[in-house]
Structure formats: structure tokens, C-alpha cells
What we know:
Helix content is 10%, strand content 41%. The protein has 177 residues and is mainly beta.
Amino acid sequence: xxxxxxxxxxxxxxxxxxxxxxxxxxxxxxxxxxxxxxxxxxxxxxxxxxxxxxxxxxxxxxxxxxxxxxxxxxxxxxxxxxxxxxxxxxxxxxxxxxxxxxxxxxxxxxxxxxxxxxxxxxxxxxxxxxxxxxxxxxxxxxxxxxxxxxxxxxxxxxxxxxxxxxxxxxxxxxxxx
Length: 177
């Protein structure tokens, strides 16, 4: 018996591509005046909502030393982020997970990817990208620019214990705006 044929999900019509979102994030991260305007808090992340290109959602985010997002995805939104100051680490999974119908999955080995993004660097990603972003510096704030299209419909938060990834809760825009 052969495996069922893979049917890709439809590409989102309109709006900026992941590459265009990354271009925006990199240009915005290079805006020294904007980056300097972000109030920084030594205890928690701070953010300013920005006008992203072509109806996208964008954020300037400050990361105190030792903070991170935890494992999450951005549902059907594609996105990009760029580091403006400091260094961020992204841990990601090199697999497309089912978007619904599960609470816990055991991941195969070899799916973990890590990258370090210093000032002036960034990365784009597609829909359902599961990752965590961290400022691992013990003493330096990091600042980054993030952009998503379509504007975030939700964020799914996960916990991770070894190879097991578990859905913990779902956040809606009212939770962060």
C-alpha cells in the first residue's frame, strides 16, 4: 500500500512574502533612532507595535538578558525577524507538524535546528513554524523586529520534554495587544 499523496496547503493570497517581511525586518532593525526609542525593562520583554508592509503585523521587541519565548508557532502566518541589537538564538524544528488534532507528539531525532542571529541578521519562515527565540546573554539586552502576515490569528504555546512536544495553550490577539 502506498502512502497518500501529499497535498500542499494553499498559498496565502496577497500580502507580503516571507522574503519581503524579512527585508522589512532588516531595514527596520537598522533604524537606530527607532531601536533607541524602545523602553527596556530589566525584568521582562517590552514591545512597540509597528506598521508592517502591505497589511502585515510588526513588532519591535526588547529582550532582557536570559529571556525567551518558549516553544510556539504562529499558526497560518508566515513571518520573519531580524536582530537589531545584541544576539538572539532560535531553536526550531525541521518538520511541519499537524496544525490541529493533537495534544502531544513524540518527535523523531534529528529535527532540531539552532541558529544564532547577531545584529543585522535575520530569518524568514513559513506557516506553522515551531520555534523558540532566546536572549542567552547573561548581561546584554537584545532588540529585534518581527513581522507576520496575515496578522497573527493566534499563537500556540508548547512545552518540550526531550523528544515530546505538548500543546499547552492557545493565545489570541486580545492576550498580547
